[in-house]
Amino acid sequence: MTETLPIAPWRLFTVEVRAVRRLSPSFTRVTFTGPDLDRFADNGYDQRIKLVLPLPGERTVRMPAGPDWYARWRALPEHRRNPVRTYTVRAVRPHLAEVVVDLVRHGDGGPATRWARRARPGDQIAIVGPDGGYHGEHGGVEFRPPPTGQLLLAGDETAVPAIAAILERLPLDARGRVLLEVPHADDALPLAAPPGVVLTWLPRGGEGHGSRLVPALAAAAGELLDGATRVPTPPAADIDVDVDVDVLWEVPAEVAPTPLYAWLAGEAGVIRALRRHLVGERGLDRRAVAFMGYWRLGRADPA
Fold first, then answer.
1. Could you read off the pLDDT of 99-140 as tens digits, one per residue?
2. Exposed/middle/buried for 89, CB within 10 Å: 0-12, 13-18, 19+?
C-alpha cells in the first residue's frame, strides 16, 4: 500500500513570465504562468508569497524541492543561494493557470529591482505560495477587520498591491479612508473601492519617506474617530521597537470591537510612527491595529 504524503499549506511552484507591463514610473506588473498554478489558492486580501529569483547571470532557478526546501536553501553556500523576496499576490486566475504580482522598482539596485527591469516572457523563476489542495489555514493573510466600524488603510508604495487587493474584496457597504504615499504623481493607479471608502494618493515628490503619510494619517484618524478615542496611553515598549534590530510586525489574532480598524504597512520607521500616533496618542486599542514593517530604509530585505 502506497503511503500518501500530507499536503502542506505552502509549496514551491515553478513558473515562467507570461507578460510584463509597466503600470507607472514605479510599478511593474508581471503575469506568471505554470503547469501547477491551477492549484494556487486564491485567498485574496494581502496574501503574502515569496518570489525566488535567478542568481546573477542566470535566467532560470534551481531550488531544493520538498517540504524542507527552506532549510536546504539556507544550507547552500551564499553564492549558490537564490535571492528570495516577499511580495503580495495581486490576482490569481486558476482557470488560466496565472498569478499576477505588482513589483515596485526601487532605486537601490536590489535583486528584485534588477530582475524586474530585465524580465521578459519566458523567464523562469519560482514562487512559494499557498497550495489550494490544503484545506486548512494557509497563513500569510493579515487583514482581519471587524464586522462593524470604519477602516483606515495606510502605506507606502510597497503596500499598494496589498491594499489594492484588499479593496477589491471589501463589501460594498464598507466605509473608511485609504492613504497611499508613492514616489511620483504618475504612480496613482486606478483602483476599485466601495463608494464609502475614500482613496487619497500622496506623491512624495522627492521628499523623505513618511513626509506626506504621517500628517495625512493624523488628520484622517481625527476625522474618523471624531472624539471616540479613550485617554491616550504612554508609549509602550512594543510601540518603540528598534526597527534596526527587531522585526516591526504585529497583527491582532482577535480584533477588538472599536470604531476604527487600522491596517498599516510600509517602511518600518514610518509605520512605527503611524502606530505610535494611533495607539500612543489617540488611544486606539492596540488590538484594532495591524502594522507591518515591509522594509527598512537602508537595509536589505530579509528572506
1. 999 999 876 668 888 888 889 999 999 999 999 999 899 999
2. buried
Task: Determine the Cα–Cα distance for residues 179 and 160; give it in Å rounded to an integer.
Answer: 10
C-alpha cell at 170: 471589501
**pLDDT tens profile 166-176:** 999 999 999 99
Q: What is the per-residue DSSP string for the chain?
A: -PPPPPPPSEEEEEEEEEEEEE-SSSEEEEEEE-TTGGGB----TT-EEEEEPPPTT-SS-----STTHHHHHHTS-GGGS--EEEEEEEEEEGGGTEEEEEEE--TT--HHHHHHHH--TT-EEEEEEEBTT--S----------SSSEEEEEE-GGGHHHHHHHHHHS-TT-EEEEEEEESSGGG-------TEEEEEEEE-TT--TTTTHHHHHHHHHHHHHTT---PPPPPPTTTT--TTTS--EE--SS----SEEEEEEEEHHHHHHHHIIIIIIS---GGGEEEEEEE-TTSPPP-
CATH number of the structural domain spanning residue 58:
2.40.30.10
195, part of any domain: yes
- Mark which of 130, 159, 182 sits at the end of a domain: 130
| pLDDT > 90 fraction of the chain, expressed in percent and rounded | 65
pTM of the model: 0.90
> Regarding beta strands 10-22 and 260-267, do their DSSP bridges make them parallel or antiparallel, or are they unpaired?
unpaired
The terminus-to-terminus CA distance of the chain in angstroms comes to 39
Mean pLDDT of the chain: 88
- Residue 289 inside a domain? The answer is yes
β-bridge partners, 17: 32
| Rounded distance between C-alpha atoms, residue 271 and residue 71, angstroms | 30
Indicate if the pLDDT at residue 290 is higher than 80: yes
Q: Which domain holds residue 207?
A: 150-295
